[in-house]
Amino acid sequence: MTGSAGLIGSEAARHFAGLGLDVVGVDNDLRRYFFGEDGSTGWSLRRLVRDLGGSYTHFDTDIRDRDGLEQIFKKYGSDIAVVIHTAAQPSHDWAAKEPFTDFDVNAVGTLNVLENARHHCPDAPFIHCSTNKVYGDRPNFLPLRELETRYEIEPGHPYEDGVTEDMPIDNCLHSIFGASKVAADVMVQEYGRYFGMPTASFRGGTLTGPAHSAAELHGYLAYLMRCVMEGRTYTIYGYKGKMVRDAIHSYDVVTAFEAFFRNPRPGEVYNLGGGRYSNASHLEAFRIAEELTGREAKIRYVDQPRVGDHQWWISSVAKFQSHYPDWRLTYDVPRILREMYEANADIWVPR
Ligand SMILES: NC(=O)c1ccc[n+]([C@@H]2O[C@H](COP(=O)([O-])OP(=O)(O)OC[C@H]3O[C@@H](n4cnc5c(N)ncnc54)[C@H](O)[C@@H]3O)[C@@H](O)[C@H]2O)c1
User: Fold this and answer.
1) Dist. CA 104 → ligand 1 center (Å)
2) What pairing do the DSSP bridges indicate for beta strands 126-131 and 206-208?
3) Per-residue pLDDT tens for 100-120?
């Protein structure tokens, strides 16, 4: 598993260890380099090691380090039952600062993991964390209506229940991050189609959960909650704060991974988000956070939206559910925020 100390990686490590598998984690806390101390996942790794004990083995290896990665794959070889690839540079804004680093981690790093899997464990299901940003800013061309607290798609539109995987991914603005993730996403599909490996790209909406190392540039729901709890000012960029995201809890993400692991298919892509079940605009999320904390949010508003930011995104999970009918979403936005509040009540205190 790569990115094992991250939001999704740590949840997956716990979940798969709970299924009785030994977990081998690869994570060098590059998130700290990306986002500073607030973004470090060191704390999460320490908890993982403490909680999983002997069923977790950690490697502080960078996925850009081909030789280092190969040593790990060689060591475990065909004993590897599943590869879960979550390590990434995950932020739009950060990617433009260092395009080489972004591409080397997201695109080349994914190829490094794929190629090792092909040589050492080609039959192991390969689960890749892609993103809805592969659709670039195309969702912003959907016919939207402005309501009191959010944007909404026109009623009766084919994507009313969420955007499906048939949305084209090219001829639109992606940001540097979106482009490196497209490269990885297509490569993962190709290892399924061309080499016949059981690979899947999960195109995440807003992935979130209590293990998020909330930083301003990544992890908006956790960061929003943290700001309200600590009395920090949160900056909303554009769209009057009415942009809609669907949020999926890391638990619901890893149960989807488990379903794929148990019954894999080659070269699949799936949109994976909270869908109609779990979504909110920034304004709506603030309202829920204020109710939970009894504190008033401090919001600064900047007119200019972030480059490539979606004005409205709700994933359709219909394709995944048609392949895996037993999988269900169990967390909606209020439940996600309540859990964050309770988990961090002693840590995110007013400053
Ligand atoms: N969180 C979201 O909202 C979201 C949405 C869509 C897609 N995704 C994708 O899901 C995946 C997981 O996201 P997350 O929120 O868990 O991210 P995260 O930043 O919490 O975790 C990623 C982990 O990977 C590690 N890492 C980064 N580069 C590395 C490298 N070169 N070598 C070794 N380790 C490295 C980081 O230190 C971090 O612990 C990413 O691919 C991300 O692009 C996330």
Assistant:
1) 14
2) unpaired
3) 999 999 999 999 999 999 999
